[in-house]
């Protein structure tokens, strides 16, 4: 059977570039191709061939034009499956699952094994029909990759997915996605932050489940002019409406470019992820890849990555008072921060290194091809 691998990733996922590049270097594939959208921002970092078959992710046009463009992209991918005949069709996501799921059925019709990566058991913004739709997708997949036991359990309990269909392979580091960061002092000077400030950082697309409101409440409780907060990322639901920048608050509510991302991580002391729910977090892996300590809530699979007081800090969700106390405690003990930073630095390059994760992924592919 063909040793070609087609990775389908129509969203702006840093993970997809890391995966495709690692598979390309794993030495067990003749060729790896990554299907993305036209404005995919991480193509330059990818060592596999990149096919920009979808239109810009945020293309502005009328609905009919967008629909026709999308259907044309689906046709091109179907043609690639038919003519290129990969040995594995590895789907990271579907752009419009309601329209796109027949791609999986078409691959199965061609006897091409389908692998689905369930980054989340269900979409973050869930609709009534999603459980049935994703149940169909899980049924069409020959194998499913999940990043945590939490996600595996959710698929079994909520979607009746057979456990023997699942492979737990951790979310790898995002070291390839990092860019050289300016020294801490320079980063802070460029941002107008005091060299002595204790800087908190909330990063990524802002959605209600991410708990920014809890962090803002905790920050207000600290009531310390020498504690600063950076909030950076697209505000998708108006979570920051009414919030304005101040001397110790930096707001950057857009898609953050690489240079700004590196500057923010360099300037901060602690990345805070006060999520209400999550399966796994790319922001967590990016923070660890930038050697920044992380404080997160004990939800979803985060506790499977963070060992409390070893590779990060964990606390219960939905408790801004506890969050404020934990931030104050960590600030008062800088040796804890430094110890966690060093341990996370090691873990992200070993446990979450791509060499071993790609080897495990390739072994799963071989098992599917042998069936």
From TrEMBL:
<protein>
    <submittedName>
        <fullName>Glycosyltransferase family 4 protein</fullName>
        <ecNumber>2.4.-.-</ecNumber>
    </submittedName>
</protein>
<keyword id="KW-0328">Glycosyltransferase</keyword>
<feature type="domain" description="Glycosyltransferase subfamily 4-like N-terminal">
    <location>
        <begin position="15"/>
        <end position="170"/>
    </location>
</feature>
<dbReference type="InterPro" id="IPR028098">
    <property type="entry name" value="Glyco_trans_4-like_N"/>
</dbReference>
<dbReference type="GO" id="GO:0016757">
    <property type="term" value="F:glycosyltransferase activity"/>
</dbReference>
<dbReference type="Pfam" id="PF13692">
    <property type="entry name" value="Glyco_trans_1_4"/>
</dbReference>
<dbReference type="Pfam" id="PF13579">
    <property type="entry name" value="Glyco_trans_4_4"/>
</dbReference>
<keyword id="KW-0808">Transferase</keyword>
